[in-house]
Amino acid sequence: MRMTTPRIAPVELEDASAEQRELLAPFAETLGVLNIFRTMAHTPKALKRFNVWGGYVMGHGTSLSPRQREIAILRTGLLCRAGYEWVQHRRIGEEAGLSAAEIEAIKIGADAGTWSDGETAILRAADELVTDFCVADATWTALGGLGEQQRMDVVYTVGQYVLVSMLLNSFGVQLDPGQTLDSDFPR
Hints:
The radius of gyration is 17 Å and the shape is globular. The termini are close together. The chain has helices spanning 18-29, 35-40, 44-57, 66-79, 83-95, 100-108, 117-132, 137-142, 148-171. It has 9 helices and no strands. Helices cover 61% and strands 0% of the residues.
């Protein structure tokens, strides 16, 4: 975590407006009302639209498999030094079938030697998008085995999680109760 305290405190559910409660209610039924959503609830219109696009990226439209999606998200969160994102998606990555060793290998990236060709290309694409904001020709070609929509969804996913990382880092969103960040996570 880059900050030890939030710059913007999460909305307390008992203090939430009717609009905020309405937007946060679906999370209470599924994930629990995480600090990211309680923080974003300060801007209800943004949270509402964020949830629509985030829903696409998280599986309600994307052509990426959950495993592919989580490889892209975890690498992006790592590169952006977004500890909150890393902790949340480490769990989601495990649920998507990534082993603990593979999640650790995401810290090394495409050169870890444990990835399929398609997964290697996803990792390289994440690196290039975060550092150069463009997928290089060689990586685009390597992504070709995934198909056109999947190539697009890799870019959409990395872009979404760069945004998420920026807001987490800038707002100082803290880990949710019971969570801990890997001691070797870049700060």
